[in-house]
Specification:
This protein has 942 residues and is α+β, with helices and mostly antiparallel strands. Helices cover 39% and strands 17% of the residues. α12 packs across α17 and α16 crosses α22. The two termini are 37 Å apart.
Amino acid sequence: MQSKIYSLLALLILAISCQEKPEEPVQETEKEFAIDYEKFTLDNGLEVILHQDNSDPIVAVATIMHVGSNREKPGKTGFAHFFEHMSFNDSENVPVGANRKMIPEWGGSRNGGTSNDYTVYYEVVPKDAFEKILWIDSDRFGYMINTVTKSALEREKQVVKNEKRQRVDNAAYGYTDEIIRSNLYPEGHPYNWTVIGSLPDLQAATIDDVKEFYNQYYGASNATLVIAGDIDFEETKTLVEKWFGEIPSGPEVEALQAQPVTLAETKSLYFEDNFAKLPELRMVFPTVEEYHKDSYALQILGQLLSGSKNAPLYQVVVEEQKLAPNIGTYQYSSELAGEFVFRVRANEQTDLDAVKKAIDSGLTRFEKNGVNNRDLKRIKAELETNLYQGVSTVLNKAFQLGQDNEFAGDPSYITKTAKLTNAVTAEDVMRVYNQYIKDRHYVMTSVIPKNQLELAVSDAEEATVWIEEVKQNVANEEVGQGAEAEYEKTVSKYDRSEPPFGDLPKFKMPAIWTGNLENGMSVYGIENNETPLVQFDITIPGGQLLDPENKSGVASMLSSLMLEGTANKTPAELEEAIGLLGASINMYSANEDFHITGSCLAKNFEETIALVKEIILEPRWDEAEYNRLMQGLETSLKDRESNPNAIASLAYNQLLYGKNHPFAIPGSGTLETFKNISLNDLKTYYNNLVPENANFHIAGAMSKSETLSVLEILNTWKGQAPQIPTFNLPSENNKNTIYFIDVPDSKQSVFNIGKLALSATNDDADNLDFANEILGGGSSGRLFQTLRIEKGYTYGAYSGTGNSLEVAPFTVRTSVRANATLKSLEIIKDMVANYADNFTEADVELTRNKLLKANTRAYESLGAKLAILRNISKYGYSNDYIEKNQAALIAMTLDDYKNTINNYLQEPEMIYVIVGDKATQWSEVKKLGKPVVELDIFGNPI
C-alpha cells in the first residue's frame, strides 16, 4: 500500500470568543497539548515508545522503518514499496502467508505503507493476541530474509504491478505525479521518481537485490517501534526485549540532509489521458521540507488561498469565472524537500489557459488584500478540533509518536508543532508567499482528455511517460506459491514458536441512553470522555426514495445547497461561523435517509447546534449558489465517466434493481436526470425534512442531561413526516449473464459479481454476514488468498452484503490484470458455486473466533459508536444487539452456514458486470460459457 501519513497540522488550542468584532485584534490563549508516553532503547539500537490507553481491550503496534523511495537508486526504483510487499510473505518462525491471514483471524487488522521517506507496518489486535502480534511482527522485521524465494519474488512482482495498474494506469490523472516528479526534481534526486516506481525496474529485481536492501536498511537501529493501547509498561518491556532484542542492529544508515530544489525555468507540460473526461491543471512550486519552520506558515497559506468562500482563488476561479467546482492549494512536505500545489479539475471543455489566468488574478487579489486576521483565527480554530481527531484512536497516536520520533528525534514533537503553528502570524504567511510562490518558477501540467489538445495551456510541451502494454497470454506472468526456501534457522536464546493467546477480552456494549424531544424526534446517545469531542448525526427517513420521478439527485443537491448560507448569513458568513467554533457541519442524502452530521469540541456543542437549527429552519435559497452547485454537479457527473469502478457500479445497480427503482441510479443522479432538476424541486423536497420519525444520534463527551438540555432549542422545528414510497423489485434479474463494458486499453478488468440477497431487517442478515467471512472477509478470505496471494492476478478481492431496509445485494468486487480476466472469472465462479460444499467445521470455528475478537476493536472511534446508534434507530435493533449477535454467532452450526449459503449465494442466479478492454477480453469472457451482452458506459445495451 502506497501511503503518506501526514503530520498533524492543527496543533494549537485557543480560547475563542465568537462575539469578537472583525477590527479587534485576535486574542489567543495557548494551552499545551501532549501525548503521554515512555521511551527506551534496546541494546541493538531499536527505539521503543509505549503509550497506555485502557479505554478498549486492544493494542496497536506500529514499526516505522526509516527507509522509503528516497533511498533507492535510478534503475532500481519502487524497491522500498516492493520490499514492503515482500516482508509480508514469509519468515523463519511464522507459517507461510500467516501475516496476511492469521492476524485477521485473530480479530485484528494489519497493513503497511511506503512513502518517499519511510515504510510503516502496523496492526491493531484484541488484547489477548498482544504477544502473538509481537511474535509475528518481530519475525517479519528480523527473520524474513532467509525465506525469500524466486517464486515468492515473481508472485509479488505481479501483485505490485496490479497495484500500479489499479492506482495509476487504470485511473484518470494517474500519471500526473510521475510527470511532476520527473520535471520538478533533477535526475538523481531521491524524489525524481514515484514511490511505486518503474515497472521495468521492478521486473528486473532479483533476490540479491532484496537481500542487499534488507541488510542495508532493515537493522533495528534504523527503526522506531510504537506500542499503544491496553498494556502494562513493565510487562511490555520484557516482551519487547524477548521478541525484538536479538534483531541485528544493522549497519549505520547515514542520515540524509534536506535537498530542496530550485527551478531555473517554469516548465509547462501536457498529457492526453486515456480515462480523463475533464481537463485538469496543476502548478507545483518547490518549497521546504517537513519540520522546517516555514512549513507551518505554508500550510496556513494553502488554506487562506483556497480553503473558504472568502479565499481569493475560490472567489475568482469558482464563484466569479465559474471555471471549476473547486480549487485546492496545499503544502506537501517530505523529509528532504517540499512542494506547494495548486490543483484545479475544470469544468468540461474549459480552456486551461483561462484557469491559469484566473489563478494569476486570484493571487494578485491576495497580494493586494493580504491576510485577514479573522480568517487566520478561523483556520486555527479548525485546527484545534483536527488535533483531537488526529489522535482519537490508539493507532493514530502510535503513528504520531513514531513519526515524530523517527524524523524529529522527539516523540512529543506534537507539542512543539502546536506552538510553532500557533505562532504563525499574518506577516509570516505573506513572507513565505513572497519567498516561495510570487514570481517563482514551477512545474505546470495540463492533463486533458484524448483528442482535446486545444484545452491545454498554450505552448505546453508534451510529457512522456512509460505506459505498459498488457499482452494476452503472457506465460511469465503465471505465478504461484512455489516451494519454501531451504535454510538454517537463526539461533535464538528464546523459544520463537507461536505464543498462546492471553485472556480473552470480552466485548461489552457501551451504555446507551435514549430520550425524546417535544417535536417528535428521538435521541440516542453514548457518553465517551476520552477526548473533549462530540460527533452527532440527525437521520431523517427518505433520502433518495423521496426524489421526484426522473429527477434523481434532488435530495443530494438540497443537502449541498442548505449549507450555502442561511436567511441571515451569506455562504461565507455561515462558513466562518462554523469555522470559528472549530466545528464541522455537513449534510448528505443516502438511499433511504437524509443526514445532518457534525463534530465539535464539547464546549462548543451548544453554539454548533444553534447553527444547525438556523441551517434547517432558515434556508437561504441562494439562486447564484444553486447555479454554481448545479454546474459543479454536472462536472462531477462527467468526471464519473472516467472511473471504471463507477461505470461498473452504475450498470450493476441498474441490472439488479431495474431502471424503475431509485437504487438503480446513483444518489447524485446522472447527466440525464440532472437536466430535469430545478430550484423549485429542492424547495418542495425541503418540506420532507421534519423531526417526526427522525433520530438524533450523539457520541462523545456529553451526558444525557447536557445533550437534551442543548437540544431543546430544536423543539421549534416541527412538521409531519411524509409517506415513504415503496418500489417493486424486478421479477427478472438478468441472472447468469455477463455484461461487458468496453473501456479501450484498460490495463485491468473491473468485476462486480452478485445478486440481490436480503434486507438488514431479515432474520438471516447477520447469518449471511457471518457466512461471507471465509469467502470474502478481508485479506484472510479465500478470494483474496487465491486471486492475490496464490495467483498474483489482483491487488485485492472481497465480497459482502450491503445494509438497507430494501433488499441489498451480495457482491464480489475485484480488479484483475487484463490478461488474467478469464482465469479470475473461472476461479470466482467455481469458488462461489462450491462454497457451501467446501464449508467445514474448521471454518465455523474460524469465523466464530475471528468475528468475536474483531468486535473488541470495531467500535473504538466515535464514528463507530454513532453507527451503533444508527443501526438501533433505523433497523429496530435492541440496545444490546451486538451482544445478541455474538450469542447467535456462537450458536451457529455447520448446517446453519450451509443453509444460509445455499439460500442466498446461488452462483447461477448472479450477474457478472465486467469493465475492461473489449479488443482483448471479449472473446476471453465468452469462454466462461454464459451469455455475454455488451453495454455502454451508462449501462445501456449496445
